[in-house]
UniProtKB/TrEMBL annotation:
This is 3-Hydroxybutyryl-CoA dehydratase. It is an enzyme of class 4 (lyase). The keyword Lyase applies. Signal peptide: none annotated. Belongs to the enoyl-CoA hydratase/isomerase family. InterPro entries: ClpP/crotonase-like_dom_sf, Enoyl-CoA_hyd/isom_CS, Enoyl-CoA_hydra/iso. Pfam families: ECH_1. PANTHER family: ENOYL-COA HYDRATASE, MITOCHONDRIAL (PTHR11941:SF54), ENOYL-COA HYDRATASE-RELATED (PTHR11941). It comes from Cupriavidus necator (strain ATCC 17699 / DSM 428 / KCTC 22496 / NCIMB 10442 / H16 / Stanier 337).
Length: 259
């Protein structure tokens, strides 16, 4: 169900599915087969009712993902090939953006170039204390390519996005936390208390509630109209309100108050 080259998948207790880009020797470069496999695995995970969230990370400690595979991309030299490359990669990242489950990036190491775009395609980012995020595409005399530029502007604002991209800044964990690029700084690795503490409340949510929340945040990312967003909110309310989990939770609170 989760088979893909250079990608490993681990189902952990509580409904967290960890997806690892497993190319440490290549700095976890996002070759075309990796992007295609990532989209396939994310889509397969979303179809599993027991999965509450996805945590995406990279192998090793140096890189979360170092962007596209430059050897592979060296053959992309005309308009049609460039558009095809961009569309395929953006489609893979859209599978992350549009996944009906919350997708968290654990930045075990640096997320640079296309790797930074992948990190921002996720809903939340947990950044290792030593990791950095950098939109450094300008070093190759190009701009962002896979939808990451609009994501960056949305998250940090146009002025900071201009600053990051034009100066090729590598933003450390504390600065990322202040700017809203990171949601937490992880000091003790992927199996430590920091990630556990961040994930625990999320994993305590009912799966349909997490999907309902993601439906609303995805609508906001897509720029849905105010009325459309309110309709989505109401649809998710109906689904969760009428679910047995809601009534069990409400009855539990009421029974404790009656004691």
């Amino acid at each position: 169900m989760y088979a893909a080259k250079d990608i490993t998948v681990e189902e952990r207790a509580g409904g967290a599915l960890w997806i690892t880009i497993d190319r440490a020797q290549k700095h976890n470069a996002l070759a075309r087969h990796v992007l295609a496999g990532l989209a396939q695995v994310v889509s397969a995970a979303a179809a599993q009712p027991g999965v509450r969230c996805i945590v995406l990370t990279g192998a090793g400690q140096r890189f979360f993902a170092a962007g596209g595979d430059l050897v592979e991309l060296s053959g992309v030299r005309d308009r049609e090939a460039t558009l095809a490359m961009s569309e395929q990669a953006r489609g893979a990242l859209d599978a992350v953006r549009d996944c009906p489950l919350p997708v968290l990036a654990y930045l075990n190491g640096d997320a640079i170039g296309g790797g930074a775009e992948l990190a921002l395609a996720c809903d939340m980012r947990l950044q290792s204390a030593s990791a950095r995020i950098g939109f450094i595409q300008a070093r190759l005399a190009i701009t962002s390519a896979w939808g990451g530029g609009p994501d960056l502007c949305r998250i940090v604002g146009a002025a900071r996005a201009m600053r990051m991209m034009s100066r090729c800044e590598l933003v450390d964990a504390q600065q990322a936390l202040q700017w809203g690029l990171a949601d937490a700084v992880v000091t003790d690795g992927p199996a430590g208390k920091d990630i556990h503490a961040f994930l625990q409340p999320l994993l305590g949510c009912a799966p349909q509630v997490l999907r309902g929340i993601k439906a609303q945040t995805a609508a906001s990312r897509r720029g849905e109209s105010h009325d459309a967003a309110r309709t989505i909110e109401q649809q998710q309310l109906l689904h969760t309100w009428l679910h047995a989990d809601h009534w069990n939770a409400a009855e539990g609170i009421l029974s404790r108050r009656a004691q």
